[in-house]
Design a protein that fits this description.
268 residues; alpha+beta; five-stranded antiparallel sheet; 9 helices; binds zinc ion
Length: 268
């Protein structure tokens, strides 16, 4: 995972990157279809990835999306008011920065619309477990690893950072917490670059958040500058697309203490 040569950013096939059009009416239909699928899932992480998909699409759509979400999409879902619509609202509520979806979901619940089984688990507190940082001695590349648990289920993120490219993130691996040891082995064994010395440290949550947000923000800026739709990498179906994982990771980082250090400026 830690390579001697800086890898190109991982191709991403999220809806924003594949150039999907944002047609509000079609989007609501798609969300309701997705909501039907959400009624059958078990792990609330899948609901969060569904919401991450929507947010990734919105980020690529540009500045007005937050307003479209709070002022158009969420009210439309509330008006539909079906169990499918409520499932979507629960999912979005887990990742949104505001409370528009959460408020709409609470009103529907209050009027008797049934919630999917995972909704209660989704509302359980998320606890951070470990924060690790691996880097080569030259600080060319680093890998930031964190795991989080909720209601007895654990999941982790491993973020590859290229320091020479504005400290931007190239890849995010989302993995079940149970394979943390394998992920660490993979980073430390360092596939094919045996002369590379990798140091391991345990940053505090605040520095972990600062450094990871720096990486995600630099990557987001770089993505803004390239309009080309990325091509999906069929060999890498294990982990969700970069922008989905990034949305989920940002929501997790917001649970950590806000760094006292001001955010990095891109290019510093
Ligand atoms: Zn993408
Ligand atoms: Zn840059």
């Amino acid at each position: 995972m830690l390579r001697t040569v800086a890898p190109a950013p991982e191709p991403c096939d999220c809806p924003g990157c594949s150039g999907a059009e944002l047609d509000p009416a079609a989007l609501i239909d798609d969300l309701i279809d997705g909501g039907a699928t959400l009624l059958g899932i078990e792990d609330p992480l899948e609901a969060e990835l569904f919401a991450a998909n929507l947010l990734a699409l919105g980020n690529q759509a540009g500045e007005g999306f937050a307003e479209a979400l709070a002022g158009g999409i969420i009210p439309a879902l509330e008006e539909i008011g079906s169990p499918e619509a409520l499932a979507v609202l629960h999912a979005v509520a887990a990742l949104e920065e505001g409370t528009a979806a959460a408020d709409a979901a609470a009103r529907l619940t209050g009027s008797g619309v049934p919630s999917p089984g995972w909704a209660a688990e989704l509302r359980q507190p998320v606890e951070a477990e470990v924060f690790l940082r691996f880097a080569d001695t030259g600080e060319n590349l680093s890998v930031l690893v964190a795991t989080f648990s909720r209601a007895g289920r654990s999941h982790g993120f491993s973020v590859n950072v290229v320091h020479g490219d504005c400290h931007s993130a190239t890849e995010i691996l989302l993995f079940p917490g149970t394979v943390l040891d394998q992920v660490i082995d993979m980073i430390q064994n360092n596939e094919g670059a045996r002369d590379l010395v990798i140091t391991r440290s345990s940053p505090d949550p605040e520095s972990f958040r600062w450094e990871t947000e720096r990486a995600l923000n630099a990557r987001a800026d770089h993505d803004q500058d390239t309009d080309e739709p990325a091509e999906a990498d069929p060999a890498d179906e294990e982990s969700p697309d970069y922008h989905l994982s990034a949305e989920l990771l940002r929501a997790r980082l917001r649970l950590l203490p806000a760094p006292s250090r001001p955010p990095a400026r891109h290019g510093d």
